[in-house]
Write the structure tokens for this entry.
Amino acid sequence: DADVTQTPRNRITKTGKRIMLECSQTKGHDRMYWYRQDPGLGLRLIYYSFDVKDINKGEISDGYSVSRQAQAKFSLSLESAIPNQTALYFCATSEPSVHNEQFFGPGTRLTVL
Amino acid sequence: QKEVEQDPGPLSVPEGAIVSLNCTYSNSAFQYFMWYRQYSRKGPELLMYTYSSGNKEDGRFTAQVDKSSKYISLFIRDSQPSDSATYLCAMIYNFNKFYFGSGTKLNVKP
């Protein structure tokens, strides 16, 4: 079984709709992250959480919100989706370490029409 | 200026070639340097990490860091078609300030 799972794997939606992407992990890690990946721009950090009570904005948090429901669950919401939020979204986890190795989920491909 | 710069490629080489992938960075505070490999339709996975300037080897892979030039490299010897993937460099300082490069897509032709 995968250690980091993301649902849905693919989603097509329309402009203005509210969308939630979910991430679950069985690795027992406290730290969780949401990234988006765009061609030529690489991975950009949206939000991160170092424990259940800790939520931090990343590089590109505008238009996004998150919820850390439990140690194992971290959800990303797009309150009102727009076409330039079309991207591949990854959830990742890590435990505290000097190099902060991150373990990524399989990704969610989101298309906003 | 981006914190981390990486040539997006694509880089196409014949099987058996030596591959050199590179990143430059601007912040001298970076302490740890990582290389992640991402296969198509998968999430990235850590390939190697290193701390100090110099070389670190792991099988066919060598990670090199030159802090004085703010330049890191990943060398792949005897490249195989299974090495075809996107390679992302990543860097961290203060244990929680981390940045990824944009990734270089590598294609190793049989």
Chain B touches chain A at residues 6, 8, 31-32, 34, 41-46, 49, 51, 88, 92, 95-96, 98, 100-103 (CB under 8 Å).
